[in-house]
Input
Amino acid sequence: VYRVDEETGELIEFGVDQSTKVDFSSGLVEDNFSGQWYMIENNLIPMFIVEKNGNSSVYTSPIKLNGKETNLRIAMTQDGNAYDITALGTWDGVNENGESARSVVPLKEGDVIVPIFNTYDSEGNFAGKAEGDECTYSGDNMIEFVNLPAGDYRYSFVINDIYGNVCYTGFTVFTTDDDGNVFFTPEE
Output
């Protein structure tokens, strides 16, 4: 999911989830995207799925925590239309040698969090990073799954094969309004 920056035209990447329904016998893949995304203290955050097991998923979210780049680890369990979303803490990711950080460090009340989004030009080339709005961790589970703000967005499928290859489908254009309605238009 990407938001179109009204000033620059760049695409701001919100992330990747697994909101899909797959029929393996027919090969049909359908999205369950409903125009909702993740927020922390009323600020959108990038979310990338790391692991899915049944109705439980683990996500990583690139952030600055008290001025230092790291990742927020988030666990989400879905029960019908209800979500339990828990901030597990911060995780330093994978270093330049390919070694994964072993520990998740719990957040502390008063921690300052700034989301970090990847940006892309209109051709889909990486343009850089953009910081979201700063917020302060209040000490409780503050991650919500809410309607996206009114605006223009792009949506596509990311396909990973068994050999590690990744491809993206063409974008579907969608717009959201102030009432949470979503209007899809295939891009030509």
Q: What stands out?
A: The chain has one domain: 2-186.
